[in-house]
Amino acid sequence: MKSKYYLLRKRKDELFEDSTWIVKHQMPWYSSGLISLYACGESTFQPGFQQGEYPLGFWSLEYVCEGQYTVIAEKKNIIQVNPEEVLIHYPGVSYQRMNNSDVPMRKKEIMLNNSPMISILCNQSILNGQDVIRCTDPAAVEAYFDRIRDFVSSSNDDGMLERKLPDTVFALFMEIIAQQGKNSIYNSFEVQLKQLDVFSPDLTLKKMAEHFKVGERTLDRWFKKYLNLSPFQYVVAMRMQYALQLLSSNSMQIKNVAEECGYRSTSFFIKEFKKYFNETPRNYRISKTDFDNRDVSLLNGWNRLPKPRKKRRHSLIDKE
Length: 320
Hints:
The protein is of the alpha+beta class. The chain has two domains: about 5-180, Jelly Rolls (Sandwich), CATH 2.60.120; about 190-290, Orthogonal Bundle (Arc Repressor Mutant, subunit A). The chain is about 40% helix and about 20% strand. The chain contains eleven helices and eleven strands. It has helices at about 115-125, 140-155, 160-180, 190-195, 205-210, 215-225, 230-245, 255-260, 265-275, 280-285, 295, and strands at about 5-10, 15-25, 35-45, 50-55, 60-65, 70-75, 75-80, 85-90, 95-100, 105-110, 130-135. The strands form two sheets. The chain has a seven-stranded antiparallel sheet with strand order 1-2-3-10-5-8-11, with helices on one face. The protein has a four-stranded antiparallel sheet with strand order 4-9-6-7, with no helix packed on it. Strand 6 (about 70-75) and strand 7 (about 75-80) form a beta hairpin. Helix 2 (about 140-155) packs antiparallel against helix 3. The N and C termini lie far apart (about 50 Å).
């Protein structure tokens, strides 16, 4: 079986094995306004497997079929992923992965080129920037991963692949969002937190308190108890996380990023971003390592370098 648009890469050693279909015509950091599949596949981590820290320049959704494993984001956020859960990797974040259990872990995965549309699906929905999603109907979610793999690996070209893949990936997100809406394992505070629109430009502490149906002082105590943050700090943190994802896409102007994150004033957004990250959005784009990182350019194991190309810095940044 040979795909016209994707190549099959297989790797295997004592603790790791994978089989991945990788798109032939674009690199992982390619950005698009629409949903674009970079790769998909399946892998197995044996007990004792460890993978060093590396940055992702793309989105990744992993469905764990069997076993469990640990992911450490940015050297501090420890994430435990169990069977029938979906892990979302965010672009611009460095991850370490390991299997500390006594049994092999098998997972299915899709990797997506950076797109503002995916950022919106992951942040401005009930997913609300979560890393791990528990499936209430795991068979339905796994079926989408299998369908995407079948489309990619098929040698039959009916001219509809470029339409089928984005539609199926979008349907996968809709399935995950729908199942998350039915999931009732979270407490009342977390449910209300998911429903809070942190990107509304009209959001105030008073409106947040009205949303939670408590007084402002009680709201502040809740946030300190559950998140160790004030309501204001939480909103800013969510907006800044979202801004990093949108800035990782070179298809959005900075003023549009500001608006999408809930800021009416671009200059105020730039000021807040600089206060939070100690650099401007423009400088973040210029210094962003995902576009130039050699490990990423090697496609995390692909044994050939990308073709040299002229640097066009101004195509990746906006004038503030």
